[in-house]
Design goal:
The chain is built from four helices and no strands. By secondary structure, the chain is mainly alpha-helical. The protein has one domain. Helix 1 runs antiparallel to helix 2, helix 1 packs antiparallel against helix 4 and helix 2 packs antiparallel against helix 3. The mean pLDDT is about 90. The structure holds fe (ii) ion (FE2) (2 copies). The site of one fe (ii) ion has 7 residues, from helix 1, helix 2 and helix 4.
């Protein structure tokens, strides 16, 4: 994972933040409500199927709430502070890194609940869309975290 396929290391900090907001924060906010609705639908309509991802709706709901609170803190406490040139932008970063570990743990739980996003052969369209969406979420979160933990946060902590 720890590569830099998009050349983000060369991107100026303000542009990097704008990219993180539009490509990841906005995307999560746009896509996660639909994933939650699909999870609810699949769990409800296949309630007695042993392959059903039992507990997914609840796990996803908790993760979405955590992620929203986390993104809000990044935006208000770190990204906005940086724009004002205030040196305190680096404060709170340890907490944000810690949150990222929590998101990874939540995603691991979701992967276990869905048997590694593996669809049964008879899965309906909604079920297929749900697992495809969760797979995309896992990829997006991985890239999002890489850009923050390995590119952006070290710059902020160095006061750049
Ligand atoms: Fe973020
Ligand atoms: Fe983050």
């Amino acid at each position: 994972m720890e590569t830099d396929p998009h050349g983000a290391g060369q991107t100026p900090t303000a542009a990097l933040i704008a990219h993180i907001l539009s490509r990841y924060h906005d995307t999560h906010r746009r896509e996660l409500p639909e994933l939650l609705a699909l999870a609810r639908k699949v769990e409800t309509s296949h309630a007695t199927d042993p392959n059903t991802p039992h507990g997914l709706t609840q796990a996803l709901e908790a993760m979405i709430a955590d992620l929203e609170e986390h993104m809000r803190r990044e935006e208000e406490d770190v990204f906005a502070t940086l724009a004002t040139g205030d040196a305190s932008a680096g404060e709170g970063i340890a907490g944000l890194r810690h949150d990222h570990e929590g998101h990874e743990a939540a995603l691991n739980r979701i992967a276990a609940i869905t048997h590694g996003f593996r669809l049964p052969s008879y899965a309906c369209h909604s079920w297929a869309r749900l697992y495809a969406g969760l797979g995309k979420l896992a990829e997006d979160l991985d890239e999002h975290r890489y850009l923050e933990d390995s590119v952006l946060f070290p710059r902020l902590q160095a006061g750049q």
